[in-house]
Amino acid sequence: MRGMEAGCDNVTLDILHHLPLPAKEELMMPVIRIPDSLYDRLQKLAVPFQDTPASVIERLLDAFDGKESHNDLKSKLRPTGGDPPVNHDYDEQNSEDRVVPSWSGFHLVNVGEGPCRNWDDAVRYGFLAAGCGSIFAKALGRLYLGSKVFAYMRGLGYVGYGEVVREACPVEEFTPVGYDRPLLELPLIAEEMGHDLGNPEECEHVVGVKWHTTFPREEAKKFIGIFSNRNIVCRLRDQRTLDYLRRVFNVTESTQTQPGSREESTEPKESLEMNRYTGRMYYDEDGYTQHGAGSAVTDARILPTRIAIDWIEGGYAGGLIATSEDGARYVGSYLYKASPEHGTTELHLLREKDGTVVLSGHWIEENPGDEGSGQWFFRLNQ
Fold first, then answer.
1. Whole-prediction pTM value?
2. Which domain holds residue 337?
3. Which of 48, 50, 73, 135 is most buried as measured by Cβ atoms within 10 A of its Cβ?
4. Do 132 and 202 meet the contact criterion of CB atoms below 8 Å apart?
């Protein structure tokens, strides 16, 4: 038996010696061992007598990056049905034999680019997107109002920091803050972003984002060993990466999660719709009790743990996010799109007998050279 084994080894070496270079390289490729359960899932996505595990994985990565057009993906990504494999545990550290650091409160969100989505569009209109498969789109559902997100472009680095101001919805339902038309009616670089409208399993989904700091893809921020993850949404825990991102994106106390915010949204979608309001915003000089002119509140979500309000003031779109520990006092921040004005606010909530919600409190402007403070009020109805 030993002689036979030695002979076999010699034959193998002789064959390798005479193989053409491409075939030799293929045989010498690194071996990746995966559980049988993952192999079975890959096998379900394969085209019989055509695919290899490597070609299926390559298609999944192309889909993740948005490098193929959606028509190509529909015909190639899942020829036999079923969802593409994805890590449902979106913590970046999930090994049972290592200590997992406490969560920082920040999320990593992967930014894919291609015919279906584009980073320049996301910056211009304030959103992040995912789609071309229900699992990819549903990943955005892990983000909630007030989530702090760092946008990451695979192979390049981190390109944006902001907070979620609208939870995930189909792209056809999304209107950017400060615009009077839906996103799909606005000029877009990603020409196929409107694919599969009306199909919640395949269409693009977006979350609205208030960007604090962004960089062009050519100036993406990274260092050797910076943390990254292939999941669409992932909790950030790596301290070295967090310290670096806080510095290069100028993450200040006013842009971090306020005390009392929760790690995950436990409010069902129905609750968000039931607690949706519109109304008016007034400054102290407007005399809101006399129903002065004020400014139009276009959308407001009032929940016991957090509020999010959008309004139009003098042609500028404003918005605030605040959180609460007791459902009565809310602390947060505000800004105006296309304007340097931004600051912090504290509001107190009262409910009138007819269901009207009144939020009253103060604002503190933090824009250098334009510092100030004052009182404001929001009168909201469903």
1. 0.48
2. 273-381
3. 73
4. yes
